[in-house]
Structure formats: structure tokens, C-alpha cells
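Q: Convert this sequence to C-alpha cells.
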Amino acid sequence: MPLKNRKKCASVAIVGLGLLGSSLGKALKNKGYRRLGWTRKKALRKKAVSEDIVDECPDSLNDILARSDITVLCLPIPQIIAYAISRAAFFKKGSVVTDIGSVKEIICRTLVPELKKYGVEFIGSHPMAGTEKSGMDAAFRELYDSASVFITPDDNAPPKAVAAIKKLWESINTRTVRISPKEHDLLVASSSHLPHIVSMALTHAVLGCEDKTRKMRYAACAGGFKDTSRISSSSPLMWREIIQHNRRPVLNAMRDFEKRLKNIREHIEAENYDALQQKFALGKKLRDDWIKSGKA
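A:
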């Protein structure tokens, strides 16, 4: 095909090349985008190119922001906000910026008006994907396969900008769901943030004991504890920041959980094992239905 007839690839900047950013870079290979990456450490910038995580990873962040049609901020929540504000003047005019943050209302409320001053649209994103691991070495191409991705535009977001972010995520085999930032934060407080708190509390309850008892419990901990405690190995700082920025919805989710746990304890105290069995049966049905839905 003559060079002049080739359609120009859109350029995507991936800022932050940890687990999520590097996995995104790998997944976007051969998807019709020019992959530009940036991370603070020079050694990791070289590694990102040598391992084909991105096509380019220059030293200058401002350089790739100025050249990118879409920028994805794959950073912790405070850094998403700080980087976008401090670099607002360097984003390509007419480009679209998105993120992977687990909380959306504070990010969208801050960045939508701030970037619009510079002719740049911000459309929030949250891919429901990840593992308890972190860093470039933990990344893998299939991380986002079949994952849900929430897209959280404000009411005045240009359809073209929303469509660009939707196309990006769907190009790597995800299911996009449009939702408001507020609805998103209420939803994930129960479905994501609460399970991390429960997993952490369970780990404390089982292993937060004196050394001799803990060693015995190591021997008694099998698959059930391993499965339910897995996400306790996630980054403590990351989860502090997530809970801090979604405090009220998380507290409401915790109160609801505490009521349910209290009710179960009361059944056991009352030796009402029929009621307890019904709780187990309902829990099994609810989880089985979720698995059968194809969205697990």
C-alpha cells in the first residue's frame, strides 16, 4: 500500500508502567495504536522497549503527552490527580485523557474542568482487573481479557471522546460499562473495596496471634484460607489511598456487612442451625448465579 494511503495510527501514552500499565501496553500490541510509555526509572524505560511492552519510552514525559491522542494515567490515585494537573498544559490539544483509578468521583470532579481549560477532555476509566502482585515483571498480556471496564464521563462529555476511550478498552477484549462517577464509587465500595477489608481482617484474625500458635495455624491453613486471604497480599499503601478517597461508601458497605455477620453469629448462639444452613445455601446460590452469568 502506498505510504500516503496508510491510515495513521492513533498514539496512546501509558503513564506508569507497573502491573496495570505494562499489561495494557502488552495487550495493545497489534491493536492499531502507537504505544508510547513513560515511567520514572530510566532502567525500566529501557526494559519496557526491549521487552516490547511499548514502542517508545523516551526520557521526557512532556514529549509523549504532546504527541498522544489518548493518555492513560496508570498511577496511584493521588498521583493521577497531581500528574494531570501539573502537566495539564503539555497534553496534546484535542486529546483525551483517562485513568485506571479505583475511585472515580474525586478524580473526575477535579480533572474534568482542569483539563478542559487546555482543550483536553478527561474521561474516567476503571478496569476491574488486577492481581495481588505489582510491578512491570508481574505484567501479562491477558490481564484484561473479558474484564469489565467502567467508563465514567460527566454529563457534558463529548460523544467522540467517550467513543475513543470505549474503543481503546474494547480493542483488548474488555466489556465496557458506562456509569456516573458517584454510582461507580458506591458500587465498588461493596464489590471491591469491602472484600479487601474483609480479607485483611480475616488474615489478622487467623494469623495475628503469638508465634507458637501462628506456626500451628500455618499447618492448619489450607485452600479455603489461601483463597480468601489472597488479596491481603496487595499493596498496603494503594489500599490505604483507595479507602481514604472512598471513605463514606466504604463505611456504609462495612456497616451492612457487620449487620449480616452479627445475624449469622446470632443464629449460632441460638443453635439455630437450620437458619445457618439457609444462609450457606443462599451464599452458594448467589455465587453460583454470578459464575453462570458469564461476568465472573
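The longest helix spans residues 181-207.
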